[in-house]
Amino acid sequence: MRSFYHDTHTVFGSHKNQVLRWVFSIDHKRIALLYMGVMFSLFFLAVSAALTMRMELFSPGSQYIAPQTYNQLFTFHGVTMIFLFIIPGISATLGNFILPLMLGARDLSFPRLNLLSWWLYLLGVVMALSSLVTGHGFADTGWTFYAPYSIRTDAQVLTSLSAAFILGLSSILTGLNFVVTIHRLRAPGMTFFKMPLFVWGLYATAWIQILATPVVGITLLLVILERTFGVGIFDPSKGGDPILYEHLFWIYSHPAVYLMILPGFGIVSEVLPVFTRRTIFGYRSIAISSASIAGIGYLVWGHHMFTSGMSDTARVIFSFLTFMVAIPTGVKIFDWVATLYKGSIILATPMLWILGSIINFIIGGLTGLTLGALGADIHLHDTYFVVAHFHYTILGGVVFMFIGGLHYWYPKITGKLYDELRGKIAFGLMFIGFNILWFPMFLAGFLGNPRRYFDYLPTFTPFHQVAALGAVLVAISLLIILFNFYKGLKNGKISGSNPWGGTTLEWHIPSPPPLENFSNVPYVDFEPYEYEEGEPAVHLDENFRRVK
Ligand code: HEM
Ligand SMILES: [Cu+2]
After folding, report:
1. Does any ligand 1 atom lie closer than 6 A to the CB of residue 106?
2. pLDDT of 364-376, one tens digit each?
3. 3-state secondary structure of 189
4. Rounded Cα–Cα distance for residues 493 and 500 (Å)
């Protein structure tokens, strides 16, 4: 069967040239793959920056790079990882590819808008990278661009700020596209509570993209105005208020952490039922908890500012609300563990990544509560404890889920299988390496090692040296994954349409999918995860009607 690799719709009529057929394609699957290529290249760039930092941190004192270069490196690493990689991350790549397939749709509601989002994203990437070679070098503010420093520094912050603004625009349009698609293009019969849970994750994410992103857009625009025209909004020497900046920034950036994690949670909820061969435990509570995490997530931003001089009342309220977000998250973890309980667990590569991600995320989440407790945070604020906490949630949690999802849908996207053994080795190296890399940083932070410092007291040396070993393992694992995917593409076995025994709609069409996904509109009169005696319970005929 001819797949979307052969055929495509383009925005300006038809083209013979293969490059133009990719550049102008409005097919969600092609756009997803383009995002993937660029995003993972950026990820590897940001990892290289991190490895350079880790080398510098190998011993106290100055090793290879100047202190100012270190400041620019962690800013480059943070900006790239957050704004260019993990915020658009899962939605724009796996979401774009899989969402229409899961809904039984031929594409997103607005394929041209999808192309525009992608071009805006590219523009943002080019602008962000341009700060490497223009002005006085990359921003040195940290990814948070705190005022008034971001207004006064000589480094090139304008291009990064504008880049983040444009990326925000791209993100809002993707969110709109997903919300409309989920409301309008579900297959007949698929009610909201029959949607796969990855769709629920993307849905909650899309609302955050629409509602929270404008806040950061305007905030960054204000910093741009202040830098260029000297209006006093955030700079106290001009009558501005730097704390206002922190509020505005975190009103977006806390919900943004759920932008990153909710699609990841969605992947967990897809992979678990398939590799335990049973229906997910507590489908509705998982779906609703995604929505409530998105909702409560708006009310907790102040926990980033406990030491900024807010009133005690505000601090106690923010601390309390922070604990509230843990409840729906705990509900999910409970449901996942209950799904595993007495399931016939199949430890294939995607499942290993997901199990690893749950373990790491539990550590990341619980240390988040430690930081949410007011008293503890006064001690731990701005130390490596915080850095370890968010690497546990984002790298150990979201990136693990992302990689798990890539392994899970790899056969659907490519039509091929990767090598299982290599996949498992890569997982093992990463799981061990990641924990060796980041666990010592909890201890260093607890003992008082501040973050964003090029140097440290000699007492902290052992922690950083152990971390360096972990970083090497992580890097090796990433290279093995890349190699495995490449080899799979070249000489992998043909996967067939449903290698894992998945039940959601994407597993009922050929791999790789044809141009418009479904030759007929499916009718969905079944739940997303139905298994009977370890086998998928639902079979569809060629018209996508259930075979009794
Ligand atoms: C692959 C292995 C990684 C290593 C070795 C690593 C290492 C580091 C190091 C050494 C710092 C600077 C700590 C400091 O001086 O305060 C840092 C900061 C940071 N990292 Fe990573 N990291 C990795 C992956 C990631 C990922 C996957 C993300 C997110 C998707 C991420 C997001 C961040 C952020 C947001 C910061 C804070 C930057 C700032 O302070 O402005 N990192 N990382
Ligand atoms: Cu937060």
Report:
1. no
2. 999 999 999 999 9
3. coil
4. 14
| Helix 28-56 and helix 111-130, axial crossing angle in degrees, nearest 10 | 20
pLDDT at 431 over 90: yes
| Predicted confidence (pLDDT) per residue in 108-127, tens digit | 999 999 999 999 999 999 99
548 pLDDT exceeds 80?
no
Contact between 272 and 340 (Cβ < 8 Å)? yes
102 C-beta closer than 6 A to ligand 1:
no
Whether the CB-CB separation of 268 and 340 falls below 8 Å is answered with no
State the Cα torsion 18-1-266-171 to the nearest 10°. Answer: 20
| Contact status, residue 212 vs residue 256, Cβ threshold 8 Å | yes
Q: Which of 345, 355, 464, 501 is nearest to 56 (CA)?
A: 464
> What residue's CA is closest to ligand 1, atom 26?
395
How remote is the CA of residue 56 from the centroid of ligand 1, in Å? 14
Verify whether ligand 1 is closer than 6 Å to residue 85 (CB atom): yes
Each residue's pLDDT tens digit, 324-355: 999 999 999 999 999 999 888 999 999 999 99
Q: Is the CB of 394 under 6 A from ligand 1?
A: yes
Q: What are phi and psi of 468, to 5 degrees?
A: -60, -40
